[in-house]
Amino acid sequence: MFIGIDLGTSSIKMILIDQNQSILASANSSLTVQSPKDGFSEQNPQEWIDSTMKCLEALKSKKPKEFSQTISIGISGHMHGATLIDKDGKVIRPCILWNDSRSYKECEEFEKQNFDVRSISGNITMPGFTAPKINWIKNNEIDNFKKIFKVLLPKDYLRFVLTGEFFSEMSDASGTLWLDIQKRKWSNQLLSCSFLEEKHMPDLVEGNEQTGFLKNELKEKFNFNNNVKVVGGAGDNAAAATGMGITNKNQSFISLGTSGVFFTPTENFLSNTGDAVHSFCHCLPNKWHLMSVMLSASNCLDWICTITNTAITDTLNNVEHFYNDQNSVKNSSYFLPYLSGERTPHNDPHIRGSLHSIKTTTNATDLQYAVIEGVSFGILDGVNSILKVNNNFDKIFMVGGGSKSSFWIELLASLLNRQLSVCDQSEFGAALGVARLAMYQDATNDNKENIISEIKISKTYEPNEDNIDLLLKRYSIWKDLYNSNNKIAQNLIF
After folding, report:
1. Is 88 noted as a catalytic residue in this protein?
2. Residue of 236, 275, 366, 381 marked active site
3. Global pTM?
């Protein structure tokens, strides 16, 4: 048996699987996020530990016999978080999370070096990444900075509590800005930009490699029969990709979740920092991936549904009827989906959402369509940014809450002019991905090449040729609206 742990921003999700990758039991436990100031986002790491223990207890109670036979554990986690540990193994301050934007000034400081930071890190410096957070701590909390013994990513702090070992793996470490992405090792040059040394970092492994054993007291507490191994695991998106079997260059996925992601593996290190594309190591040896990230996707839909006091299902039905009338689409409003700034392709923490071309005839459905279309244009921005350096992908899978809408997928298929596939999926995709990585430590498994198989396709969607030209014309206008808004965006934030 194998356990997959997914440390998300809002909850811990955990699954127990067998050798056939059947999910025998699942559990989840909620987490909270603190926002002490505008732009600040923090979490108490003790919540991760408490929720993990609750989930382990839940799995044990549901399937005690199978649970006791666990061989290994994999851990996924939200990326970029700065968890600071002192020499006694204690947490120094709350973890600064991926969606914290306080360190935008430190991003400029980080890149002002006598060498090309981006060529090594593979990425543009953004407030969401780990490194500028440490620079902010040095500039604003010097006493806390001086206490730093180790800087750990969220899942790697959880690993430390479970095993007593300091390890990270390549996909998660890629999001720190301290990793030499091409060489898959810590860069002393990049670490020096944050006034750190390699001694402050955990050791590095690949996602399917062992990082230690579960502590004896935890083995006894949960009545495990084996010395349970813990593997490297993965950052959240790499874990989700592994759960879907997306590890090869011809594969990709679009996630319409709270944020919008386009993810595609590559055989070699590739980079497009000019468009703020994320260039990371994958969680398996000798594999990398490119990723575009828009910060607001399905949460834009949640927002407009609240504003118009309409249920999501009703909104999607309204918008589908609206979309079938080309004249309505031609005269529709426009929406910039930047409710909390944007990453790819703009790296713009100051831009905000806005509606354009509102008329006396504009109604709720018009605005709802504009939001769906604006988010879709943002996805196209990300795909186009990756196409500048990589066009090897042909299979595109749809995941996330937005992928449950056939209309939305049909619109995206036409906009991208590509076939899109919906797959059988589970809310435990990232947990399944790292449980699969844990299976590599099963000495009785002689068929490790087939551990990560591609997820089954349940339906495919083709582009509607009648709508492509209209959508692309509106996309061109939409891009001009961003360029105009960008000139005044910073002045609108006080």
Report:
1. no
2. 236
3. 0.90
